[in-house]
Amino acid sequence: MKATLPPAGTDKAxxxxxxxxxxxxxxxxxxxREKAFGIWRTFTWAQCLRDTRALALGLRTLGVGPGDVVxxxxxxxxxxxxxxxxxxxxxxxxxxxxxDSLAEEVGYLIDFCRxxxxxxxxxxxxxxxxxxxxxxDSVQHIVYADxxxxxxxRGPDAPGGGDPRLLPLQELLDRGEAALRDDPPAWxxxxxxxxxxxxxxxxxxxxxxxxxxxxxxxxxxxxxHAAEMLKIDPRRPGDEYVSVxxxxxxxxxxxxxxxxxxxxxxxFCEEAETATADLREIGPTALLWPPRAWESAxxxxxxxMMDAPWLKRVLYDWGLKLGHQAHDQGRVSALSQxxxxxxxxxxxxxxxxxxxTTGGAPLGPDVFRFFRAIGVPLRQVYGQTExxxxxxxxxxxxxxxxxxxGRPLPxxxxxxxxxxxxxLGEIVVRHPGMFRGFYRNxxxxxxxxxxxxxxxxxxxxxxxxxxxxxxxxxxxxxxxxNGDGFSPxxxxxxxxxxxxxxxxxxxxDGRDFITALVCIRFSIVxxxxxxxxxxxxxxxxxxxxxxxxxxxxxxxxxxNAQLPAAQRVRRFFLLYKELDPDDGELTRTRxxxxxxxxxxxxxxxxxxxxGREQVDVDTTITLADGxxxxxxTRLTLQVPEPTPAExxx
Amino acid sequence: MLPTPxxxxxxxxxxxxxxxxxxVRALHxxxxxxxxxxxxxxxxxxxxGKTSLLNCVSGRYQPTRGAIRFDGQLISGRSPAIRAQxxxxxxxxxxxxxxxxxxxxxxxxxxxxxxxxxxxAGGLYWLTGARDEELEHHAAVxxxxxxxxxxxxxxxxxxxxxxxxxxxxxxxxxxxxKPKLLLLDEPMAGMNLEEKEDMARYIHDLxxxxxxxxxxxxxxxxxxxxxxxxxxxxxFGEKIAEGTPAEVSAHPQVRAAYLGGE
Lengths: 649, 262
What we know:
The complex is a heterodimer of chains A (649) and B (262).
Chain A: H1 15-25, E1 30-36, E2 39-44, H2 45-61, E3 69-73, H3 78-89, E4 93-97, H4 103-112, E5 117-120, H5 123-132, E6 141-144, E7 166-168, H6 169-182, H7 186-193, E8 199-204, E9 214-218, H8 219-232, E10 240-243, H9 250-262, E11 265-268, H10 275-282, E12 286-289, H11 291-307, H12 310-328, H13 334-348, E13 355-358, H14 365-373, E14 378-384, E15 389-393, E16 407-408, E17 413-417, E18 425-430, H15 442-448, E19 449-450, E20 453-462, E21 468-473, E22 478-479, E23 485-486, H16 488-496, E24 501-507, E25 514-520, H17 522-531, H18 539-543, H19 546-562, E26 569-574, H20 594-600, H21 602-610, E27 614-622, E28 628-636, H22 644-648
Parallel strand pairs in A: 1-11, 3-4, 3-5, 4-8, 5-6, 6-7, 10-11, 12-13, 13-14, 25-26
Antiparallel strand pairs in A: 1-2, 8-9, 14-15, 15-16, 17-18, 18-20, 19-20, 20-21, 22-23, 24-25, 27-28
Helix pairs in contact in A: 1-2, 1-3, 2-3, 2-6, 4-5, 8-9, 12-13, 12-14
Chain B: E1 12-21, E2 24-34, E3 39-43, H1 50-58, E4 65-70, E5 73-74, H2 80-86, E6 88-90, H3 103-109, H4 119-123, H5 130-147, H6 163-175, E7 181-185, H7 193-208, E8 213-217, H8 221-227, E9 230-235, E10 238-243, H9 245-250, H10 252-257
Parallel strand pairs in B: 3-8, 3-9, 6-7, 7-8
Antiparallel strand pairs in B: 1-2, 1-4, 4-5, 9-10
Helix pairs in contact in B: 3-6
């Protein structure tokens, strides 16, 4: 199988070739923007090429060559993107590392991949690398973009002369420029030496169960896949994209490929904290967010409406109801759009959104309906890092069946292995854009990739009409002791749509009924508590309040009413702390790590099923800044009221 | 980078400063020198005269006796406005922001005295250079916003911010004019640990990266001893010690008066 791709104006399908071709044909067209010092600054294709070229030749002077690994560590910035393309131009592999990774997580990836050069954003990231000491012995150079605070490690003031591996990005660019002046054809030689079928991108899997595994993606296959996606969900020059999700994520990586192919404008936010405001200023035409981001945008709207004057609240409720009704009948309510849709879309920065997608995990149907009711054409997509991101999607126009994630791209082969009587089985896929295996990990490769087919580990049903229904991970499908199957995640999504629920874990595998551990959403519950004149100190204290418990019980009862009888939550505890990726309870993309939860909260789970009314907790947690804090609290068993139907029975 | 100070050159010098309020003696014969680029802390128990001394430097009070020189120039007797023009900026112990103005406007106030174009010139915006001046000031303000990492709140009303952030905005306003001398009156008072750590880092970076000369009053001994180049100790209006943090904390009188004694 070979990826077919007609690269515009270039003979090779690689990121550097595509960039060079764009710069040659549209040198003065806007390629990217970055907000800095409060102003959006533009980069033309020619500028992008100039910086990338200087970076590539600079990396060459550091000895970066074919097969080496260049890691990128920092916020989404133009330099990040240029660094990735520059690494490819040297024949090297690029490895994006999530910038909020802990030092040891960074150390693991760097050591595992034998990274030679790290392009780091600032002092925060450099400190992580220096802290690791010997564990990063493969790293020969640490290039940093923001010199602030780095006098401690480099320059005349640094104790002991500092770390010789440190190099400012500007110096690397200068070296590259000098190399180009001395030897103008050097850049073209790099391009000529590139092999489009060589592995260029290392993209880490989310690592729900273990250390992240870097998947190997070849240039041509990667760009080919981006092109296949564009056939279904086209973009054109002038379209606006805001890069909000971390660049190491496959979804953002593919967006990068699409950017080079379709030449829309890639916008970089000022800071992670300003993303919402920046997004609204740009008004993107396309957006791919994980469910978490959509959920929090929806919860934010709900929270703000709780604070709104009564007239606005009444109009909002009414307008939204009209919108829901119209959407359920496949219509659009003009009145609803005029009343709430238009204003909400504007507030959220979605006014020009033509392609709105979500993927990475299932999204609660309520959130889905909410956005579609306010006129955001939200669609589901489905994919994995190993399969180069999204390969199943709803068409951008027309009706969307909320139960499915859409159809596979035309060039994708998909089958269901070991189906049960309902056709539910493992989703197994192959296509030309997929990965070549895991980097330096044949064992893992052979486990997932058999006869060229990727075994996704996801359970799904391929419906007669060609649409795919994804239920859950095969191994996460749970069964009650009576054999009733259920998906904990489905229940959790339902619960999490409540603005008061931050995170939750549904339990019940092999048990007689379903229970849950629920974390309150502190920002919203604290506001609610203030409004109701409820005094509290910390998160643990607030979540132990009987009034809060009653509030959450009502929320769980409302969710129970929408669930089939076997899937209702019968008992739950309000947890004394938020689930946190730093504690290993969630992945970096905020998926629940069930193993860790079962282990750490085993005593609570036992108490749930034994029906113990009260559990005393005395534990120590690690705060974000590394300090330990002791928590002494008492959890009370929460038992939601049965639904009216159950009472009758 | 730190400029290498000449041995006798002082950016700020107080000579025998005495301050009396109708018989109450707030300061008695206090002398000290602050070298360029230095982070100089003043410590002492409550009522020792720390803020009074800072007020003498900034011009809020006029010393009864003694002289204060800034950059070789005698400034005691001159108005606070003139001292600001010369390059002295300060923050206050209690917050003094314009609550209903945005953060960015609050910071711009810190550069107000540098604006040369008046009301009439502003009316002829494009002709008089008022536009260029405004752009230049805006860029300077944005530089400070970036430095203190308050991009996300630049358009918020100052009064809606948390205490820690308001303190940071106040610091931003003080440094917006890139003063030669920055006076900080208890920059970390009332902050939680995380806010303190942030503030300490910003002050440290101002001192190291922008080579700003800083005189700071602070009660948190950990912060003072970690960050300062030199420390002066006041007690009942009199200077009882001056030196490096190590020297000062070893001083017997200091231990008795301030650190709680043996």
